Amino acid sequence: MQPTPVPNFEAAANNAALDETASEIVDLSEGNHVLWRRSDVAEPASMLPRFIASASDDVESDTSDALSRRRLALRDSLGASQPVVSREAFAGRHEQMAMLINAIEEQRVHVVIYGERGIGKTSLVHVFTQTAREARYHVIYASCGTAANFPDMFRSVLTYIPHIYHSSVLPNSALAEQATNLDSMLPPGEFGARELAEILSGVVGTRVLVILDEYDRVVDPNFRREVAELIKNLSDRAARVQLVITGVALNLDELIGYAPSIRRNITGLPMRPMSATEVRDLLRMGERAADLRFSEAALQLIYEMSAGSPYLVRLLGHQAGLNAINADRDVVNDVDARNAIERVIDDWRASLPRRVQANLAREEAAAHWPLLVAAARAGNSADGWFTVDDVYTELRGSTSPLTIERDLKLFVNNDDLLERREGPGDPHFRFGYPGVAALLMISSSMGSKDVRNTSSL
């Protein structure tokens, strides 16, 4: 056996020193074996990933990659991570916008916009805000949270209303020249709807719209009572101030409670799933922006899988469009759409806690797949709660109510997929972690009975 050759590092170093641009160090004594390769030559810094656009959203001037520009254009038109804030990126919902404007301008009532999560409520009020400001309405947008309380919320709202819009302030007075706001008229500390309505009833020279978004997140019952009282007081005084309230709910009562005294002062605006025409209009924005065309098969698949949710239409349309652009194609086909759906399912599944993934992977879950899918559809509401009768309806009477309740209990506590709430009437169930119901429904629509492995879709 021949001994293993020992590399001649000295000779290699001498040869490399002869040429500073050498990309390799070679052992000349042993058959020109490459001992070392210069990484700065093989992978220059210019080949590292870079941002396509600057922080001001301008595409870099030296970016020659047309596909990168199309990807950015597609993101701007169909990106689903943020609500729509401008008319240019808004599609469909023309009827809802017209109804909202009519309620504010002609009926002079307060408006409550309600519907499922991701149905486009926030996008609607953002675009409505832009439209109202063009008509010189003074619009204040406020997003509610679980810690919201009435005095803090409306003290903040009044900081955006200049003092000059109050009837007690003369245009040429010293107070008008101080550029103060209406919050200075509030008493220190706590105050209620009556004190607030007294100040707001003096608004002149403009009309004020106060948008309370995500109202369903408010947990303080006093906040809701005071808002209902404020609506009544503003209406009784014919104040030039109107409220627009949005929130996740199935009906008006879930957001504002049963308050007959204010029913004549408000109008409800339900947000329904988008129609096929609206879905097509939304995806056409992506087509125009990124020079794409969605095939009829892709459009149909995205419409069916999204169930009319603007969020899902954008999410699936964006991902399907990227699939086509990355393949250097101008047509988004059904394969692109299907791959986008699989990607979304996979991302949703991966985002679930490990214990939930483990519970979905159990054979018991696979054995009761039709029941879980029916439960997911039954719980497709604002709060997610459903009853045995709801599941019975989804199963079209194929399983008895007693069997349904028995099998649902298998996934409560020990399996931890479902929560159970006892109360008057039948027990209520709900999936314990957000996203499980949506994952089950879209997986079912794709024809898969195994959400554990999306490659089987």
Could you characterize what this model shows?
The protein is α/β, with parallel strands linked by helices. It folds into four domains: 9-42, no CATH class; 87-270, Rossmann fold, CATH 3.40.50.300; 276-350, Helicase, Ruva Protein, domain 3 (Orthogonal Bundle); 355-456, Arc Repressor Mutant, subunit A, CATH 1.10.10. The protein is 45% helix and 12% strand. The protein is built from 20 helices and twelve strands. The protein has helices at 9-18, 39-42, 66-78, 94-105, 121-134, 150-158, 174-177, 193-200, 221-236, 252-256, 276-290, 296-306, 310-326, 334-351, 354-360, 363-367, 369-378, 388-394, 401-409, 436-445, and strands at residues 24-27, 33-37, 110-115, 138-143, 208-213, 241-248, 266-270, 293-294, 331-332, 386-387, 418-421, 428-431. The strands form four sheets. A five-stranded parallel beta sheet has the order 4-5-6-3-7, sandwiched between helices. A three-stranded antiparallel beta sheet has the order 10-12-11. Strands 1-2 form a two-stranded antiparallel ribbon. A hairpin with a 6-residue loop joins strand 11 and strand 12 (428-431). The longest helix is centred in the C-terminal third of the chain and has 18 residues, at 334-351. The radius of gyration is 30 Å and the shape is globular. The two termini are 56 Å apart.
